[in-house]
Design a protein that fits this description.
The structure is a single chain. This protein has no helices and 8 strands. By secondary structure, it is mainly beta. It has one domain. The chain has a 4-stranded antiparallel beta sheet with strand order 1-2-3-5, with no helix packed on it. The protein has a 4-stranded antiparallel beta sheet with strand order 4-6-7-8, with no helix packed on it.
């Protein structure tokens, strides 16, 4: 069961081999207080939020609150329209995950850097044994970098 979350930025190539920047939300089975800075956190799933922004120095992706589609492709193809965002949810033992991510708050610190994501998600996929799996819930994920 997922009980805590954290976030880190990433730079990766999408399905077209174009490099983009985005955010990885990490979900853990450990209780409150565990996140991506914890040495012994048990990570259960990763939600990769891909933006249409390309890397430039140490720049991290900017995001606005809103609705993001979760697609089964890993890596996804990032749409080329301005402001495009797409997500891929990697869950241990679950495949072809689709769903919806709602970012209700993308909090920025006084230095204008994202320091916390708040939102909810609903997603479903198929387990290794062929069973339908559904994941739903809300989260607060502090940035761990």
């Amino acid at each position: 069961m997922i009980q805590s979350a954290g976030a880190i930025s990433f730079t990766m190539a999408d399905a077209t081999s174009t490099t983009y920047i985005g955010w990885e939300l990490q979900f853990f089975s450990n209780g409150s207080g565990y996140d991506c800075l914890s040495n012994n956190a048990d990570e259960l799933a990763d939600l990769f939020i891909w933006t249409d922004q390309t890397p430039s120095g140490s720049m991290r992706a900017s995001l606005m609150p809103g609705d993001v589609s979760i697609v089964p492709d890993d890596p996804p193809t990032v749409p080329t329209n301005a402001g495009a965002v797409v997500a891929h949810f990697a869950i241990d033992g679950v495949h072809q995950v689709t769903g919806d991510l709602m970012l209700t708050d993308v909090h920025e610190s006084s230095s204008n850097k994202i320091d916390r994501f708040v939102g909810s998600l609903t997603a479903e996929g198929t387990s290794d044994s062929g069973d339908d799996i559904m994941v739903a819930g809300s989260f607060t994920a502090p940035v761990c970098e």
